[in-house]
Amino acid sequence: MGSALACRVPPARDMTPCASYIERMRTLIILALFGLLVLSVWFASTAWERLGGDPIPIYGYLAMGGGILFSLLLGGALMGLVFYSSRHGYDDTNSGEQDRR
């Protein structure tokens, strides 16, 4: 707790306790994320080996590609509509009044 309070000192004072606390937390976070990455790669490779099945036929790859392409086009179109709506004032309220129910 004392180290966390050291981060709230005014800028004119020495910031070494805060810097060491931040460095320790940064190192801890990086190690935790790296550990999760290693664990997820291990799990994926183990599942890939143990749950092997029949090979995917060509129409399966075509269906996956079509689904991915459709999802990307739909997402892009919806984002385009959001930007269009925002830039043309469709998101603004009418004459400053809010909805009354």
Q: How are the SSEs ordered, and which strands pair?
A:
Elements: H1 2-6, H2 16-50, H3 58-87
Given the helix and strand composition, which structural class is it? mainly alpha
Shape: flat
The pLDDT mean sits at 83
Please give the largest β-sheet.
none
Q: What is the first-to-last residue Cα distance?
A: 49 Å
Bin the helical content.
55-70%
Number of domains: 2
Report the strand count: 0
Q: Count every helix, treating DSSP H or I runs of 4 or more residues as helices.
A: 3
Question: What does this molecule look like?
Answer:
The chain is mainly α and 101 residues long. The protein folds into two domains: 1-53, no CATH class; 54-91. The protein contains three helices and no strands. It starts with a helix and ends in a 14-residue tail after the last helix.
Keywords:
101 residues; mainly alpha; 2 domains
Short description, anyone?
The protein is mostly helical and 101 residues long.
